[in-house]
Amino acid sequence: MRSVSGLIAGIPESQELKELQRCLVFSPAIPLSELSITNLERVDPYRSAPPGFPRLVKISFLTSIPVPKKILVKGTNIALDIRPCPVQPARCFNCQSFGHIASRGKCSSITTCCRCAESTCQRRCTSKTGWCANCGGPHSASYQGCPSYKKAVTLATFAHFYGVTWSEAESRLFAPDTASHSVGARNTINTTGPTSSPKHASTGSIAPQTERSCRLVEG
């Protein structure tokens, strides 16, 4: 079992999350021994949201299987999209590449400077000009605006959320013969962190079917 987290949008601020947690189900049903919801919590956005926009809700799971992309509100026709929470990618301090750690993977690549990408600095770089060892851009390998870093976030997030290796995530997201899948998968991963969410659930409307149906409170 591993712990993973995702984000769901469209939950009104007036909705009690404990009540909502009891009403979330998967279809078809999944045994609790394989996948269970452990927590729901609201996430404050990096930027202030306009009035009336509810915060995203972080949903945490304990799972031994891939988490489905949607979860249902019991007794309604509402289906909430689950978007994986971004994961910080591992970066090797020896070669500066992403996806492994020198102390664990015993990196055999040439030692490369994080700042200037040369192999002669021995971690005491005096260069005034940054040069990325991953993308060749004018910045250090640790710069989070680097396109290689953003790609690594996508890979690390996919690998962690769906329980696959880095190599498998790369083949599924970026292989030429999976281009159509890649676009859809990458679009589910937000590499810039939580932002504001739309006011209403994006898929479906509230239509309780029984008296014991779960009620999603409108704010």
Task: Explain the overall architecture.
This protein has 219 residues and is an alpha+beta fold. It folds into two domains: 2-84, no CATH class; 102-186, no CATH class. It contains five helices and seven strands; from the N terminus they run E-H-E-E-E-E-E-E-H-H-H-H. The chain has helices at residues 17-23, 102-105, 147-162, 166-174, 179-186, and strands at residues 2-8, 24-25, 35-43, 56-63, 70-73, 79-81, 83-84. It has a four-stranded antiparallel beta sheet with strand order 3-4-1-7. A three-stranded antiparallel beta sheet has the order 2-5-6. Strand 5 and strand 6 (79-81) form a beta hairpin. Helix 3 (147-162) packs across helix 4 (166-174). The longest helix has 16 residues, at 147-162. Residues 178-188 and 191-212 have low confidence and may be disordered.
Short structural summary:
The protein is of the alpha+beta class and 219 residues long.
Which key phrases capture this entry?
3-stranded antiparallel beta sheet, 2 domains, about 20% helix, alpha+beta, 4-stranded antiparallel beta sheet, about 220 residues
